[in-house]
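Minutes, project huddle
Topic: does the predicted pose make sense with tryptophan bound?
PN asked that the exact inputs be recorded in the minutes so nobody has to dig through chat later. Recorded below.
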Amino acid sequence: MDHIKTVFSGLQPTGNVHLGNYLGALRNWVKLQDDYRAIYCVVDLHAMTIDYDPADYVRERHEAARVLLACGIDPKRSLFYFQSEVPQHVELSWILATLTPMGVLNRMTQFKDKTERGGTANLGLFAYPVLMAADIMVHHAQLVPVGDDQRQHLEVTRDLAERFNNRYGDLFPVPEALIPETSARVMALTDPTAKMSKSDPNMRSRVLLLDPPDVVRRKIRAAVTDSEPTVRHDWGDKPGVSNLLEIMSGATLRPIPDLVDDYGDGGYGRFKDAVAEAVDEMLHPIRAAYAELDEIDVAAVMRDGAETAKASAEGFQRQARAAVGLANR
Ligand code: TRP
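Predicted holo structure (tokens), as shared on screen:
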């Protein structure tokens, strides 16, 4: 059992899960369950660092859990729970905060981006990467499947694991990022130079996993392209078309050159219809699984997950407490 590595990742529960989340991360999470001790967490404490509505939050947290289950996170094979229900995350995050130089956090581009876009610079947002490090370290995870945008945060985790080990003795593995080979980057349909994002106010910028077929089709048909109607992959000159090729390749698992062979000269209308159909085919089983899931079952899965996660985290956390001198004589 000891040779099986532990994988940990987290998803924020605000905003609906979209195609970029799925192709960039979630699909990979599902696959990793086959070969690793997988732990997945709805990171509801992280999502509180930006403006959110507490009245909606109960539903949003639940929905996020349900969508992940529909995508194939299997509670029989992985540990799946809400971050806030396992208090060891926050406790470890405090210990790590005492090891974190302000300068390290001052360099975080995501903090700068979020505050420049009008968010308040609250302490929680500033300390976000420290809590993320605690999420990973509280389970002694070695591998962290994340999108490219989380590289900098993962560097902080690695740094904090090393600082802890140097200061208090070797306790934590120094985790590594696991960036998926396929389709790690899906761009906005309305602006293919920006990442597809939950926070884009324009709903046409992204396909949600639970969008009905006609909505999927409409959004993809309206995707921004260009006026030179050949289908080829060229991020510089044809970002919109390249993005659609990436999406279709992600959905069909066919290599991009094959798709270019098939659709190169057939016009954008035909190509977009094919992309929409491929995406719809991929989403169909997710929508069906979502519809099958019952609210009470989802709640029970999350309750059991939290219990198991708490027991596992507490085992490790006892060692961390002892290492830093938080133990009774
Ligand atoms: N910061 C991650 C994101 O926005 C979410 C996250 C929180 C996470 N804790 C984590 C990802 C731990 C991986 C591991 O996508």
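Observations noted during the meeting:
- Strands lie at 6-11, 37-42, 78-82, 143-145, 176-178.
- The pocket of tryptophan is lined by residues 8-10, 12, 43, 46, 132, 135-136, 144, 146, 150, 153 (CB under 6 Å).
No decisions taken; revisit at the next huddle.
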